[in-house]
Amino acid sequence: MTPQHDVTPATDWWRDAVIYQVYPRSFADGNGDGMGDLAGIRSRLPYLRDLGVDAVWLSPFYASPQADAGYDVADYRAIDPMFGTLPDAEAVIRDAHGLGLRIIVDLVPNHCSDQHAWFRRALAEGPGSTLRERFHFRKGRGENGEQPPNDWESLFGGPAWTRVPDGEWYLHLFAPEQPDFNWDHPAVRDEFRSVLRFWLDLGVDGFRVDVAHGLVKAPGLPDMGHGEQLRLLGNQVLPFFDQDGVHDIYRSWRTVLDEYAGDRIAVAEAWTPTVERTARYLRPDELHQAFNFHYLNTGWDAAALREAIDTSLDAMRPVSAPTTWVLSNHDVVRHTTRLGGGLDRARAATLLMLALPGSAYLYQGEELGLSEVTDLPDEVRQDPSFFRDAGQEGLRDGCRVPLPWSGDAAPYGFGAGGSWLPQPADWAALTVEAQTGDPDSTLELYRTALSLRRTHPALGAGASVEWLDAPAGVVAFRRPGGLVCTVNTTAAPVRLAAPGRVLLSSRRVEPFDGDFALPGDTTVWFEE
User: Distance between CA 174 and CA 112 in Å, rounded?
Assistant: First the structure.
């Protein structure tokens, strides 16, 4: 049965939304050049409607030299030709709304491309240019300014400073092709409020804010004072992350969002030292949601999961924000691989996540049970950190391999012209076509779970769970409305009293004598 959607302006629709991340270059190829694009996304929107998600988050499709897969933006109001045109983007938004889906677009405000018009003018005009004040240009240390202005490191490895021919240095927390904006400059603040309005006027329903914690740097740009290599997805206390000044920016953004009908939202990618610090981004006059990386980083352990769930819910309650739950995205190893235990554990983790109160994020392909592609040859890799010494692992390409849609061989219906990263030879059984209609497939498990989440009164929004007594290694909780979720995180089966009828299970369970055997790495939803 096709899920029913409602796109009428609903207050706080985002409090229990399931949001699906599309990585455009790897989702679907509409023109046969081997690269995913907006036409491909548009053609597959009915699939996402039928999957049962509420909104689609599109990773960057802006005009870009693609030094960091589009996170180096040259023009925030233009579409990169590799993805299509601005009318193509408008068509995606229009068609999505017609199918009952909302659209969230990525916004990259911490940095731009070195090909952005502002930065090119800043370089051309030289020291003293007013355009340089919109970035972080500084004189170097040392007798002849030959040393970087401070000891900050790039998250992609190496110094966070690059020297230009006239002798000054500019700051880039990521690749040298991604100069950081100076958010103390009013022109930068004005520009991004204008960019917000541009996309809101085109009908987008919200923004995912890239590096939301990084916009403001500590006054004077003080040294870090240690040599620990930065981690892309870490929680270190740093002079260029999670500075209090970011909150003034987001309060001004909230004013813009509230000008528009339809409950438009902003979602923070904010890596902070604690979930309590993350909650500060979600005060009632700031942003709406933040990714729960504390949960994503939690291992497959009953005690650790329970602690992460409690901590997450407790942190959001004072600011009346929904907790979000996420297991995979374009920057981390797919959870089928990362959690260990293979597909059984991944399916169990998904049903646990979807039973929790709040909003859930899915990453494209997880509904097919895709694992991380770990054997990509060096010559095909494109993650910029892969090519830098002492940087990140450089293996983000493994979760970005294009999706398999149909057929028995690559490119599995992705498009007529191959795929920009090679797909594994054993993906034929994991295509959308192969899994559709198979009641034991991961795709049908997701479809069923999302349908139940939409219709069952105990699933979706909320602020707490009622923990139930359970054996060691088992997580069990009740949601108001008559649902009990039971998770066995161990490898061995556990015999438990059934609290009701089985509503959905990540693996088959066999009831007997009023009890049931809960297999290892299994989650069951019971209806009381």
Answer: 10
Is 159 within 8 Å of 152 (Cβ atoms)? yes
Band of residue 227 on the pLDDT scale cut at 50, 70, 90: low
**Residue with structure tokens 């004040």?**
133
Residue 437 burial (10 A CB sphere; 0-12, 13-18, 19+): exposed
The DSSP call for residue 180 is: B
DSSP letters spanning 304-331? HHHHHHHHHHHHHGGGT---EEES--TT
Q: How far apart are CA 106 and CA 192, in angstroms?
A: 13
3 state SS of 191: helix
Q: 373-396 pLDDT, tens per residue? A: 988 887 776 766 565 544 345 478
**Strand 359-363 with 324-326, pairing:** parallel
pLDDT at 5 over 70: no
**Per-residue tokens: 406:** 């149909």
pLDDT tens-digit readout, 75-133: 999 999 999 999 999 999 999 999 999 999 999 999 999 999 999 999 999 999 999 99
Nearest 5°: phi and psi at 325? -135, 135
Q: Among 53, 25, 52, which Cα is nearest to 41's?
A: 25
Residues with a known catalytic role:
210, 259
Q: What distance in Å separates the CA atoms of residue 2 and residue 277, rounded to the nearest whole number?
A: 40
Amino acid at 255: T
Buried b / exposed e along 105-124 (16+ C-beta atoms within 10 A)? bbbbbbbbbbbbebbeebbe
| Percentage of the chain exceeding pLDDT 70 | 93
Measured between alpha carbons, how far apart are the two ends of the chain, in Å? Answer: 25
Contact 56, 104 (CB under 8 A): yes
Phi-psi category of residue 262: left, alpha or beta, with phi > 0 → left and psi -120 to 50 → alpha: left
3-state SS of the chain: helix, strand, coil percent to 5?
30, 15, 50
Task: Report the predicted TM-score, pTM, of the whole model to 2 decimal places.
Answer: 0.94
> Residue 386's pLDDT is what?
61
- Quote the pLDDT of residue 383: 66
Give me the mean pLDDT over the 181-188 stretch: 98
Average pLDDT over residues 239-251: 96
Which residues sit opposite 512 in a β-bridge? 515
> How many angstroms separate the CA atoms of 163 and 363, rounded?
38
How far is 347 from 505, CA to CA, in rounded Å? 9
